[in-house]
Description:
The complex is a heterodimer. Chain A has helices at residues 24-34, 80-90, 100-107, 163-171, 227-237; strands at residues 12-17, 38-43, 57-60, 94-98, 114-116, 124-131, 148-154, 158-160, 175-180, 198-202, 208-211.
Amino acid sequence: MAFLNQYYLSMKFGVVVFPGSNCDRDMEFALRHELEQEVIMLWHKDKDISAFGKEDCIVLPGGFSYGDYLRCGALARFSPMMESVIAHANRGGKVLGVCNGFQILCEAGLLPGALLLNDTQKFVCKNVFIQSENDASPITKDIKNQVLQIPVAHGEGRYYADAQTLQQLEDNDQVIFRYCNRAGVIGQENPNGSTNAIAGICNAGRNVFGMMPHPERACSPTLENVDGRKLFASLIHN
Amino acid sequence: MQEATLEQAQKLGLSETEFNEIKKVLGRTPNFTETAMYSVMWSEHCSYKNSIKWLKTLPKDGSKVLAKAGEENAGLIDIGNGWACSFKIESHNHPSAIEPFQGAATGVGGIHRDIFTMGARPIATLNSLRFGNIQEDKNKHLLKGVVKGISHYGNCFGVPTVGGEVYFEDCYGTNPLVNAMSVGVMRTGKTISATSYGAGNPVFIVGSDTGKDGIGGASFASADINEDSAKDLPAVQVGDPFQEKKLLEACMEIVETDAIIGMQDMGAAGITCSTSEMSAKGEHGMIIHLDKVPTRQKDMKPWEMLLSESQERMLIVVKKGSEQIITDIFDKWDIHCVQIGEVTTEQVLKFYMHDELVACVPAESMVLGGGAPVYEREYTLPAYFAERDAFSIDSVEVPTDLKSIAMQLITLPNIASKKWVYEQYDSMVGTANSTTNAPADSSVIWVKETEKGIACTVDCNGRYVHADPFVGGMIAVCEAARNIVCSGAKPSAITNCLNFGNPYNPEVYYQFVYALKGMSAACLKLDTPVTGGNVSFYNQSPDGPVYPTPTIGMVGIIENIENRMTMDFKNVGDKIYLIGKSRNDIDSSEYLHKIKGVALSPAPYFNLEEEYDVLQAILKLNEENLILSAHDISEGGLFTCLLESGMNRNLGFELTLPNEIRSDAFLFGEAQGRIIVSVVPDLVPDFEEALGFTPYTYLGDVTAKDILIQNENWGSIEDWKQKYDTALETLMQNSNPQ
């Protein structure tokens, strides 16, 4: 793992397992086997995350948490584990939500805005390109202006927030990723109609991150795409 | 118990002979509940009464086969290193015709349950879909609904949809076909059997509550679709993928315990089918208390509970004393798990409602392979063969505008990209689908605990089978094998989904018999046994039967996934070769059928020995690292094949037309047993030597972007790709208000 700095090689990850999570094992595999990090799986009915300090990261993986027959993530935020995750975030601990995890973070109020039904009205799964225009957050610090090929797979991924919130996000460099084309032109390709082509954001404290694309699906040389590793590596380094 | 009348039995779909047979089995006249149970168990859907005679002729033995056809919920093959692969395909045609979203969704749910009930974790799903003319709004509605249903269920359940096929032909207008296949993996020796034994062992029902949905679904699937079918809506079940996801995880935990005797999912005929099949297999009986079954509605009648096809339910038989282990697991996943009875020595099923015996039947008498009827049906040579045989290629003038025909061809809905469909499916969850970034003729799924890859594909060209059931049956198997081999895998075994019209029509039955004979011949030659599947008859509307469509689901194994083969051209200047021979043949091609408007012609050229030789050649070339890509020639012919090979990396190709073959046959004909490969120039001598006696032709070189036919520039690959990629989407966006 050449791009992982030997001195800051490790971060402890906790991956929350809701009954309808279906990317939890993929996240575990990517972090544990592809990035060689310590991973602890966290059951939604439990509350104990005393093993995790501020420097550690709790991940909310993709899936359908509790079926998501209501609004995606609407029920998950009331789970016992989420109480602990919210407390961890409020202490300044790192939290990363991917796809359904991003939706849950918005429902829980840890991130502003909401994720609406895609403008096509259809679920979409394909490789897309994303890019960060700033290096203000740990997850983007080492990858500013790099075009990454990362898959999306969601039905409700259109980021929406009111004008004032959007302005704050833009002013504070809280937009961590935007959809772009292969050449890096922002907004040229937008799989869901997200406002300002937003693919991911962070909170004002830069310790809570949410993104619709799935970096854990782009970590394996066997699958011929390892762009997701760069993003995790940046998070681990910084 | 009040006796049932013959009239009631007939209304339930039983014949007079069958009703009399039940009386003979029981030694008395059955009551209504019992009659209803026999009516579903002896329906075509559960009993295979009109097909089993011929199904038994399919080759099912193989050194790698761990569970043969009919032995368990799905077939199981050994893939080495202590791992096994379980796979099966099933139809959900009739429900999808009436309610496309739920029909397709529950089809996906049902086939996955067959896999994980055995203890295997599903790692991939595929589907094979057929609709009528896509220009018609009704068919667009069906396509949208079916795709949304598969997407809804599969995406939430969390198993990637990795491949499939979609065809549009007028004959599927009233009766679309929706076939779903699931592939799972497990450690060998961890199989959970669908059996029941050991007197006193408790019987549990787990999963969703039992409701009135899907009552009589099996009988419903055993009748022609007509105007009254919309009234059958309650016969279509409603799916809950979240519940199924929890069931899956609970089952994966159960596999690790030693607490289980057997488990079976409840599909068609619900409690009746699962209790009778498990008991018959284990040669025991059961006492079941129906009042203990959790229900969705109040006051459900015994027969309604016995026939309900509510989804996401399982019947499990637990070792006495191990109940706590099992209930703890289901509690963890918040799934109902209720004891409803126990195993008995006497081989009889006794159903009680508040201590009143409501049904008492010998399990064996109800099931396939036991007392269920077996019929021999008559068959006659179809009359339409005369019209087929009258076709001559000379009646079609060789066109001069080859380029515009090529453009027309690649934008036909049967040929054009199915992106509009497959992008709605989560094809990557599980992070094991290697074909996302490295496209191949079949989907190659990484078994992550090992270095192995499992290649899987579904294939059937119904038009070929219609043209010649015997040859078409062989082609379906060989087309699948070609796709498996082109992805670098060795074909292992098949599962089949036999979609046909009404078996009481002798011409339909002829198609069935000869398609199976063709399939058998090909499976024997390729050493790919049939490990299971299903039969769907009555795919018929007032306009007539659908094309005979025996969909083949094939799996193959790659020992090291790094050795997989891909379909796309790699470098400018690589040499493009055709393995196999070009033929002066346009029979049953898309070109002839859709562009020239010839409805009937013979099946395309096919020779089983030559096919086998080509398959072996590709395996050898891949093993010796002599080729960079392999893509088989199928619908749309050689031109379409070359175009598809160039698209992934935006590389073009050049091509010289031969003198001895008609240009339309060369470019668009669908003669079988042909594969396009590309070779690095330096390796050409080794490549040609390795081929030995296998026929091959050098076609031209890979170009930077242009398509050059006979030195004429047909434009850039990007332009062609754009049209190929968007044709179906454009069709779906244009609705014709009627």
